[in-house]
Amino acid sequence: MHDRFQYEKDQKVVFTKEMKESYTILCPMMLKIQFRIFRDIFIRHGYKLVLLETEHSAIVDEGLQNVHNDTCYPALLVIGQLLDALKSGKYDINKTALLITQTGGGCRASNYIHLLRKALKKNNLEHVPVISLNASGLERNPGFKLSLPLIIELAYALIYGDLLMLLSNQTRPYEINKGDTDRLVDRWSKKVSNEVRGVTLFKNKKVKKDLVNMVADFSKIDMKRTEKIKVGIVGEIYMKYSPLGNNDLEDFLLSEGAEVFVPGLLDFIIYCVDNTITDFKMYKMDRLKGLVSMVAKKYLLKLQNMMISAVESSPIFNPPASFEKIKSLVKGYVSSRNKMGEGWLLPAEMLELISAGYENIVCTQPFGCLPNHIVGKGMIRKIRENHPNANIVAIDYDPGATRINQENRIKLMLSVAKTKQKFANIV
Ligand code: SF4
């Protein structure tokens, strides 16, 4: 054991205030647009945060060697990516910390951190501090604090990021000059960290104006509106968003000529907050947390409405549905108290996509994820019964699944969609 590090009773290395100054914090990538904006905000708040955007096959090998192979595939990838980075020689292992999320729910995502610490020990790296990013008070580190101003900035950054993702997905397939969309995404992403500097709960006029300006900027991109197959992506959160997890699914669909719709991260965050309210109301759990969650939910819904109104300011774009609307869609499918994994949100997102005209859906399912197999794959038959036009394919992701096999199954789904489209055009 390294003596110069501060350990807690259970042998965890504490990330101290002094470490904040000198340590590089490695964080796995999940959503390209939103996470890059978050990184810039953390850097402005004094953290040396590095986003890991590596995607090579050694990451899976590292995960397989260090995590039990019946563990959820997202855990295997995230832990593999962090260990791969530590061993890459790019970072000083005595001045590096790792950041990982803990959801605080009943699912295994709360326990990835323990698997990571076990893997570090196996590799004689147990002196590397692991920081838990959570909103449930599960673990605390004196050198890493989610202060209220920082949380507020991140919340605003989230709606900028979700809006950028939504708009870019609706312009990229139609742009005449290749790269226009990506250039605009870059321009806005660079601006956001500064735009949200010092925003408060009540001082958000500038944000409202920015969101409308952003929509106007995207609507000015030169586009040729040809008929495209519209595809929605749902699933377990990491698989749905992470290019490393889903083998660049968005890019693949785009290369096949589809327009993609990916539900925003904000819905998942509101879903987590909503679950805490359910715990409080149904099971009489932590009253204070319940009350704080009610206030937080109200505020997040307000931010979401702000974003939806901005999209509605242009006739070109499909706005996302509000959280409450999405929740109402799932009645008759699963209980809105089903909250393991993505719980009721997963089938609700499929229903939202269908009602928005994205009847072709890829449902991403990671290995080891029982809850999402129930609310994802398990719901497809019932959804098809009520929506005969729904064309849903569930794709499994695991260390042994080949990309070619996944892509072939998606191509099959796309060819069904194309046939339907041709038929609809004839009729
Ligand atoms: S949602 Fe699935 S993948 Fe995520 S922690 Fe739960 S079981 Fe694992």
List keywords for this structure.
alpha/beta; Rossmann fold; 427 residues; binds iron/sulfur cluster; four-stranded parallel β-sheet; 8 strands; 3 domains
Please, could you describe this protein's structure?
It contains 16 helices and eight strands. The strands form two sheets. The chain has a four-stranded parallel β-sheet, with helices on both faces. The protein has a four-stranded parallel β-sheet with strand order 6-5-7-8, sandwiched between helices. The N and C termini lie far apart (73 Å). The chain has three domains: 128 residues, Rossmann fold (3-Layer(aba) Sandwich), CATH 3.40.50; 120 residues, no CATH class; 145 residues, Rossmann fold, CATH 3.40.50. With 427 residues, the chain is of the alpha/beta class. It is globular, with a radius of gyration of 21 Å. Strand 1, helix 2 and strand 2 form a beta-alpha-beta unit. Helix 6 packs parallel to helix 12 and helix 14 runs parallel beside helix 15. The mean pLDDT is 93. The longest helix is centred in the C-terminal third of the chain and has 26 residues.
